[in-house]
UniProtKB/TrEMBL annotation:
Residues 37-172 form the Pre-mRNA-processing-splicing factor 8 U5-snRNA-binding domain. GO terms for cellular component: catalytic step 2 spliceosome; U5 snRNP. Gene3D superfamilies: Pre-mRNA-processing-splicing factor 8, U5-snRNA-binding domain. It comes from the Eukaryota. PANTHER family: PRE-MRNA SPLICING FACTOR PRP8, PRE-MRNA-PROCESSING-SPLICING FACTOR 8. It comes from Ambrosia artemisiifolia (Common ragweed). The lineage of its organism: Eukaryota, Viridiplantae, Streptophyta, Embryophyta, Tracheophyta. This is Pre-mRNA-processing-splicing factor 8 U5-snRNA-binding domain-containing protein. Pfam families: U5_2-snRNA_bdg.
Length: 173
């Protein structure tokens, strides 16, 4: 088989071919369109506006539902749309800020990532992430896990070992 057949064989790029002649007729680059990004942004805005005096768990549950809906519909197209990845980081930060404001504090030391991302069964909020932020070095002293090699990271907090918060994309690949 020629090298050309494998040059575009990766996520986010589909080779379209004629079924009868088996000739490659086009290459499709998967992306999430601006309209659907706006729909997601408006959904997050709606979550924030309607979260008045509701519990933090309800806010996080609504965020998780919106994020799962987006990721299961668009799948690999989300990772190949730079603007959407930036939007996900911004929206995730807005949700976290809303929770922090509910406690009248935005001091980072009071809200380590473990508060948001730890499952509900062991005391966290169970927030799903697509922001791909790094776990701060100070929080790793409690960790004795091995790194399982996650891909597609966005900028965030950093430390020497670059250990990452598990994100939703890993589970729907």
């Amino acid at each position: 088989m020629p090298q050309e057949a494998f040059s575009n064989a990766r996520d986010g790029v589909w080779n379209l071919q004629n079924e009868q002649t088996k000739e490659r007729t086009a290459i499709a680059f998967l992306r999430v369109d601006d309209e659907h990004m706006k729909v997601f942004e408006n959904r997050v805005r709606q979550i924030l506006m309607s979260s008045g005096s509701t519990t933090f768990t309800k806010v996080v549950n609504k965020w998780n539902t919106a994020l799962i809906g987006l990721m299961t519909y668009f799948r690999e197209a989300t990772v190949h749309t730079q603007e959407l990845l930036d939007l996900l980081v911004r929206c995730e930060n807005k949700i976290q800020t809303r929770i922090k404001m509910g406690l009248n504090s935005k001091m980072p030391s009071r809200f380590p990532p473990v508060v948001f991302y730890t499952p509900k069964e062991i005391g966290g909020l169970g927030m799903l992430s697509m922001g791909h932020v790094l776990i701060p070095q100070s929080d790793l002293r409690y960790s004795h896990q091995t790194d399982v090699g996650v891909t597609h990271f966005r900028s965030g907090m950093s430390h020497e070992e670059d250990q990452l918060i598990p994100n939703l994309y890993r589970y729907i690949q």
